[in-house]
Amino acid sequence: xxxKSTNPSASAAGTFSLGGxxxxxxxxxxxxxxTGEGVWGPPKDRKEAIAVLRRAVELGVNFIDTADSYGPxxxxxxxxxxxxxxxxxxVIATKGGWKRPGPYHWIHDASPAHLREAxxxxxxxxxxxxxxxxxxxxxxxxxxxxxxxxxxxxxxxQGKIRLxxxxxxxxxxxxxxxxxxxxxSVQNRYGFADLESDYVVDYCEQNKxxxxxxxxxxxxxxxxxVLNRIAKAQEKNSMQIALAWLLKRSSAMLPIPGTSSVQxxxxxxxxxxxxxxxxxxxxxxxxxxxx
Length: 291
Fold this sequence. Notes:
By secondary structure, the chain is an alpha/beta fold. It has helices at residues 46-58, 74-83, 112-126, 145-157, 171-178, 198-206, 221-234, 238-249, 262-270, 278-285, and strands at residues 15-18, 22-25, 29-30, 63-65, 91-96, 98-102, 105-108, 131-136, 161-167, 183-189, 210-214.
């Protein structure tokens, strides 16, 4: 059981500059879970979802990550409902590249036509004239990757996108994209027990690109045992320890823990001030998940 912080603040995690243009606190909020089951439809408790978004901003969160496919549309619409007109320092990042025919169902579409339509839709739903950070949600094997990224570069030139980013990519994808347009962040699955993107984290840090991890807890019984033991020693919960490890792992790390609960939100933000011992950090850093 974690000790509740009386005044958690995202600012305790430090800051990161996206493309040298937008400075954000280094723990944000992922807005996927404020939708319904299967990332489909409205949330079970709309009032709580609105309260979570507003409380996040009160706690110093100034980076919110969403996507047009979350709902679809629901997440972006709730963000606007809860927070518009937006605080001056709030950065909203959204994504495009999927179609959603139903709950738990995702279909690739990173075609130029779809991306243009998706950007226009996000502008409308978020009630903005320009999207702060727009991410290609995932490369589409049926579409030229250069065409997908090139479309976002064109939309940036048109003033509809301020900064371009990527999600679910390899280092090769990042390098190919950077030949077309500057890339300010990369969002991949990553955590202490899921190190497949370890080399991407290092590449991002070396090139001053934010790395946004999703699914930070990993999986497996051994992972849970290690995390729970350290959490008990720190008198925190496992998610807080996983987030603290991420923040210590790299100065480019920008975790975006998501939740539909105000209580869980406050616990997640409190992770910004947790200090792992060097021994605890080394133990987690050397971990490999065992099925």
